[in-house]
Write a structure and sequence with these properties.
Helix content is 95%, strand content 0%. By secondary structure, it is mainly α.
Length: 37
Amino acid sequence: PLLVRAVHQSTLTDALERAGSAVRRSRVSGDAAADDA
């Protein structure tokens, strides 16, 4: 059970980090588009 929880937690963390970086990337490109406008 502990191993399953650890794997699940790491997967969840990876997903959150990936989502966070994606949001950051889209926000940066959005800011760049706003600057160009």
